Amino acid sequence: MHKYISTFLAVAWMITVAVISLISLEGAPKLTFSFADKIIHAIVYCIFSIVWFYAFFKGITTHFLRKNALLASVIFGIMYGILIEILQETVVENRQGDWQDVLANVTGTLFAVLLIKVFIANNRKLKTQN
Fold first, then answer.
1. Among 120, 91, 115, 107, which residue's Cα sits nearest to residue 44?
2. To bridge 36 with a disulfide, which of 31, 74, 80, 101 should be the other Cys (CB 3.0-4.6 Å)?
3. What is the reported pLDDT for 96?
4. CB proximity list for 17: less than 8 A, separation 6 or greater
5. Which pLDDT tens digit goes with each residue over 14-33?
6. Contact assessment for residue 24 and residue 94, using Cβ atoms and an 8 Å cutoff
7. pLDDT exceeding 90 applies to what percent of the chain?
8. CA 4 to chain centre
9. Domain ranges for the chain
10. CA atoms within 13 A on the CB side of 6
11. How far apart are alpha carbons 69 and 75 in whole angstroms?
């Protein structure tokens, strides 16, 4: 059952990111400081990479993806972030793609790697101490 939940959460987050990224934001409140948008991008893609790591590692997946879950989640997160920015530039009328947003997305994805590595390292250390 756990494998279905992790896969469902990853797909749900991916759809949520797409919808939020591609809808019109006319009339939305402005952020209070200049780089708040970039911080939000980094947080969103950090979460994106973490949920996809678990989907690849524990979800409905192949042996190859399970074995390479961290790399797969990084590549997928970066490619998805770039795709969303391209779609914003080409498909959505009142949104534009931004290379700085791509950089923020990549930063969030790489921060997720750090968190995953720290969590896994601590988890393994705790298991061996018992």
1. 107
2. 31
3. 84
4. 44, 48, 80, 84
5. 999 999 999 876 666 666 66
6. yes
7. 65
8. 19
9. 2-22+34-129
10. 18
11. 10
Amino acid residing at 73 = S
Tokens, residue 56: 């690849």
Q: How far is CA 65 from the centre of its chain?
A: 17
Helix extents (H) in 23-68: 36-58, 63-67
Reduced to 3 states (helix: H, G, I; strand: E, B; else coil), residue 27 is: coil
Coil vs helix vs strand at 51:
helix
Of residues 93, 107, 85, the one with CA closest to residue 39: 107
A 10 A CB-CB count for 7 gives 19
Q: Which of 108, 93, 90, 86 lies closest to 37, judged by CA?
A: 108
